[in-house]
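User: Second chain of the day. Same drill as before.
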Amino acid sequence: MIVDRYYKNASEVRKNWSMTIDSVVHDRPAFINRTHDYVAMFDSNLLVEVFRDYKYHVTLETEDDGSITGYVDDLKLVENAPTKEECIKQIAAAMKDYALDYYAEFNYWSKSPNRVGQLPYILKILVSNEDMILGDIVCQNGKS
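Assistant: Same format as last time:
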């Protein structure tokens, strides 16, 4: 790996934990090696920037009863509400709940072939607030 020269020994990191955290927050990510384990440490704000171009693509459809159904294509989530605005808010809440569930069962979901591709979206949601999530929802109209 290109970053091999930047890996810090885990024992040294443990001895200088506060300094390592300060360096990650104020300077740059840290790469840590413990025997055969390799770990990268990032500031949460940096992750927001890394995932900036990931958007949540939502297909909206008007149902026969006039309600709106939204499909989050990348996360396979579906919500229905009386209005478009309510549907989008429900989608944002469902995305947050899903990301928390995914993280709680990370070992299972991150290895599931049909869910592993969702990881960048999950990480982005976990380091975002509600306004950031709502701002990254991109809607398109589906069949009416």
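The domain at 2-41 is CATH 3.40.1620.10 (YefM-like fold).

User: Great, on to the next one.
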